[in-house]
Every structure is written in C-alpha cells, then in structure tokens.
Specification:
alpha+beta, 401 residues, Arc Repressor Mutant, subunit A, Alpha-Beta Plaits
Length: 401
Amino acid sequence: MTPARARRGPTGSDDWLVEVGRSAAAASGVSAELLGDFLPMLAQAAGHGRRPGAHDLDAVRDLGRRAAEQGVGPGQTVELYLTAAWRLWQRLPLVLRSDDSEKVRAAAAAVLRALDDAVAALVESHQAVRRQMIRHEEALRREFVDDLFRGDADIARMVARAEPFGLDFSQPHQVVLIEHRGTGGGTDRLAALLERSVVDRFGDRDVLVATKDDRVVVLVPAGSPLASRPSPDIAEVVRTQLRRLDAGDACRVGVGRAFPGVYGVARSYEEAGEALLLAARLRSDSDVVHARDVLVYRVLGRDQAAIVDLVRSVLTPLEQARGGPEMLLDTLQAYFDAGEVATDAARRLHVSVRTVTYRLARVAQLTGYRVSRPDERFSLHTAVLGARLLDWPARPLPAGH
C-alpha cells in the first residue's frame, strides 16, 4: 500500500482526516490548524510502520511554537493531539477492514511510536517558547518596576507601560516595603506568597507585587473616602500574612503614604524606604513602621548641620563615661521610650530602677542636662534621636559642622 493510499478512506479521499481533525479541535477547544500534517503522518505510520522523520518532527515543533505564541496552554495542545490520535484510530481504514490481528497490533505499535515522538517534540518546543516568553515578560516587568519606583521616567510612557499591569495612575496608590531583618533570604518566594493574599483582599486591578533591592514591594490603590466599603489596611494584611508564614519576627514592614500619579508612587516608595531606614537607625522593635509616624525624624535628618551641632554640644561629654557613651545613650533612649517612667525603663533594660536613676544622674553630671527639667529634657531627647539618625557613636560625627 502506497503512502497516499494508506491515509485514504473508503472513498479514496482525505476528507475523513479533515473531519477527524475538526472533531478533535471542537472537543478540545483548540484550532485544528495546530494539527498541521499530524494526522496524515499517523495514518502513514499505521500503514507502513514508518516513524516520523526529522522533517516531520520539525514541522510539529513549529506547531508547538505557534501554539505557545497564540497563548494555547501545553495541556490543551497535548489534549488536541491525543484526541485526534484516538479518533483517527477509531476510523482508520486498516483497522476497520483488516481481519489480521497481527497487522492491527503492528499498526497500533507504529501509531503509538509516532504519537510519542510527535508529542515529545510538541511539548519540547512549546516549553522552550514559553520559557523564552516568560523571561521576556520578567525582564519587561523588572524594567518597569525599576523605572516606576525610581521616579524619573517619562510620565506619558509610564502610563502606557502600566496598562498591561492593570495600573491606573490617576488614582492614589500606596507602597509597602517588606525586608528581612538582618540577612535577607527567600524574597522571591515571599513575594509570590504575599501576592496571593494581597490580590485576594484588593483584587487584581491596580495591584503590583514585585521584588527590588532584596525587598518585597507591594503597590495597592488607596481607599477612597467616597467608596461604599473602606479599603482594607494594607499594613495589616501584610502583617497578618507574614505571621501565617511564621515570618513576622524576621521581617519589618515600611508603609509609605498614598499619593496620586506616577511621581506619587515613587514618593510613596521613597517614604516606605526611609521609614525602614529610620526604624533600623533608631533601633525600633516595631514590625510595622508608617512613614507618617516618622515625619519628625525626617525633619531632624534634613538639617544635618544643626543636628550634628546639637549632638556634639549635648552628648559628646558622655564619651568621658567609663566604657564610652553607648550605655548612657541606651538608658536615655529607654527612658524616653517608656514615657519617662524609670520603672518601665528599668524593665526594658533588664536592670534595677536604682541603676536607671544612677545613670540619669551621671548623664546630668557629664552634660549639664537633666531629665527633670522640661527644656533640658527636650534637648536631651532630640539629641538622642539625632545620635541614632547619625549612627553615633558607632560612626564619628561628620566634620565641618
């Protein structure tokens, strides 16, 4: 039987193969064009036992690439080919006409071998294209994230680039940053897990979860005062999810304020980053730091000359203390954090109340500033905050101020 004869039905035409392809496509919900010459190839394998050649498999690979580019999933594509194969077998003339069981078994083995070769080539090319597309999409996404949070990109272009991500910059957005305390790790996995929770609470529009500089970045729309239902607190959503993942103690969350526009996103991102930086310098034990709560520290930090002068004038006399100024600085910080209650400060420092009062007296002796006087207490408190912002005494005070 010639190859052409092997693939012809009782009427001597190829119409039955076309019909098989159409029925398989209808059953799998995929275009029959993605079958190409797959069915004639199987029919020839059944009739002659010929395995697909290199040219045949290259044609199948082209079809796999086309399916990936059209957005047809690998499961759907394989389902189309398997459905077409068993439908072809049910209508194969050799099977319908032959009484020779050995011939039928040989045809079945040939069809299965050809099917196996074709599906392997199909999946291989489909996966290769999908990997390439994913890498391209990830590169575009990372470039978009970098430009968005840097804040110096062209606004009109950023608005156009944001459309595929479902972002509408005419609405206010808020940025949250999550970083590991100490050494980082598992940022990409943490981002993937947080994304599910954020999307569940805020929807999949105007939401972006990504990684940048070994931090997880979460961008969400801010709640509108005219909305019928208030938007959930993104900080609480993130904190709850971190606790579920047993990552609450390992991570700190910085929350920027909400602003409209492309530049507003970059501003909120900058605020969230500054909140994390200030929390680290101030040695805060809080796991969530809002930018609105550290505005006063930002004010202090912007006039560095004045804050350096204040620290030098008020606190450098503590260097005369035995062991250096660090212990007395820690005592002042704990005292102010405890609401100026010595017993609470002692509990925070794990020392006796008498030790706290002794250290405060020592501060007054060295600096001339007493916590019992409101004006001097304010100067001491501001100077301690400035020292933390400048990371003094771990770092020397800047010269020239």
